[in-house]
């Protein structure tokens, strides 16, 4: 390479390293293949991933698709140099979105864009994506990595995912939500992938907290590790719950908080009421609130406050539902109820 203005240009001199891209692809192949299901046809290297639906004997199958990213949580990964869990968050956001509608996650695609391609970083990210796919039970059948010099600085990256699932048309949720139903909350031990712009501004910019220091006094891991705590993937537990209990709706608690997502599954004529104090709120939320002097209403509209998923079930199914969710490895609580109303959701304090 030369800085002479009249020297012949190459793609590498323009900032794109094809050899680094090829090396990254070779390194991620084992991660990708570890997620394959029997329906996956072919191998890596095609122009598109192939997935057979031949053995899904549904009477009226419906495909459900979702796309999402990890938002500014990726900045915490960059600042700490730890990239091997951010892919789990990516899968959680889309796989749980389609599970909310009663669908079984089948396949996943990822898109990684970087300023300068680092095969080690890409390998770690895709390792996390593959782990997320194994947890969700879906196959990682393809993806894309692209190098964007000048548009993104070296070390910067963005991560987007796409999930597809299948469900019988008559089983699509929500359905039959009615007054008297109860709301079950699945525990989320951390922020998942939502509210990070506010959390970073409060903890790092305003309070000057060190990501390498303990998350709080006496805690055994760093603030960076706490903020990178991977999202719980609920899809398998949700499927188990549907097999055992009559579920009327699920609500994935992401951006917008508990009320902002519960309202999305409420029909006209009812309200959803969730009571703070009926579950254990992880310490990280109090740390963020104190660091930024954030009002309760703002916290409730931004963060999940320790509930990553809600299920609406008949009153008589509560104990069976709690037992099923806990048997699947998640803490869970009865946190609220459906009442007569006007299609609104509320968070109150007991």
Task: Provide a descriptive summary of the structure in words.
With 350 residues, the protein is α+β, with helices and mostly antiparallel strands. It folds into two domains: 18-171, 2-Layer Sandwich (60s Ribosomal Protein L30, Chain: A), CATH 3.30.1330.10; 182-349, Alpha-Beta Complex (Phosphoribosyl-aminoimidazole Synthetase, Chain A, domain 2). 33% of the residues lie in helices and 24% in strands. The chain contains eleven helices and twelve strands. The strands form three sheets. A six-stranded mixed β-sheet has the order 8-10-7-11-9-12. A four-stranded mixed β-sheet has the order 3-6-4-5, with helices on one face. A two-stranded antiparallel sheet has the order 1-2. Strand 4, helix 4 (119-136) and strand 5 (139-147) form a beta-alpha-beta unit. Helix 1 (18-33) packs parallel to helix 4 (119-136). The longest helix has 18 residues, at 119-136. The model has no long low-confidence stretch (mean pLDDT 93).
**Main sheet?**
6 strands, mixed
Oligomer: single chain
Question: How many distinct beta strands?
Answer: 12
Span between termini: 68 Å
Tally of contiguous helical segments = 11
List unreliable stretches of 5+ residues.
none
Output the radius of gyration: 22 Å
What helical percentage do the residues reach?
25-40%
Q: What's the architecture of the largest domain, going by CATH?
A: Alpha-Beta Complex
Shape: globular
Please give the domain count: 2
> Order of SSEs, N→C?
HEEEHHEHEEEHHHEHEHHEHEE
What is the overall pLDDT average?
93
Class per helix and strand makeup: alpha+beta
């Amino acid at each position: 390479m030369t800085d002479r203005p009249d020297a012949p240009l190459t793609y590498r001199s323009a900032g794109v390293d094809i050899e680094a891209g090829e090396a990254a692809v070779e390194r991620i192949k084992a991660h990708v293949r570890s997620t394959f299901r029997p329906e996956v046809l072919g191998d890596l290297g095609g122009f598109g991933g192939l997935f057979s639906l031949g053995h899904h004997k549904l009477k009226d199958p419906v495909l459900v698709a979702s796309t999402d990213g990890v938002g500014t949580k990726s900045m915490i990964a960059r600042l700490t140099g730890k990239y091997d869990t951010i892919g789990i968050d990516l899968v959680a956001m889309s796989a749980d979105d389609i599970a909310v509608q009663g669908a079984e996650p089948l396949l996943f695609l990822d898109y990684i864009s970087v300023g300068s391609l680092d095969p080690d970083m890409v390998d770690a990210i895709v390792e996390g994506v593959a782990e997320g796919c194994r947890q969700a039970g879906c196959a990682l059948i393809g993806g894309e990595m692209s190098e964007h010099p000048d548009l993104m600085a070296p070390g910067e990256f963005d991560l987007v995912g796409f999930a597809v699932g299948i469900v019988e048309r008559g089983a699509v949720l929500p359905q039959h939500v009615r007054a008297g139903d109860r709301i079950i909350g699945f525990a989320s031990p951390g922020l998942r992938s939502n509210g990070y712009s506010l959390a970073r501004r409060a903890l790092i910019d305003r309070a000057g907290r060190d990501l390498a220091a303990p998350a709080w006094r006496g805690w055994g891991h760093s603030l960076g590790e706490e903020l990178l705590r991977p999202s719980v993937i609920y899809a398998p537990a949700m499927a188990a719950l549907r097999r055992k209990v009559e579920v009327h709706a699920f609500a994935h608690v992401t951006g917008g908080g508990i009320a902002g997502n519960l309202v999305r599954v409420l029909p006209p004529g009812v309200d959803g009421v969730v009571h703070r104090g009926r579950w254990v709120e992880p310490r990280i939320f109090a740390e963020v609130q104190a660091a930024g002097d954030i009002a309760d209403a703002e916290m409730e509209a931004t963060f999940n406050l320790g509930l990553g998923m809600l299920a609406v079930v008949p009153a008589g199914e509560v104990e069976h539902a709690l037992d099923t969710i806990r048997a699947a490895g998640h803490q869970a609580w009865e946190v609220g109820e459906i009442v007569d109303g006007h299609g609104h959701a509320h968070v109150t304090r007991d």
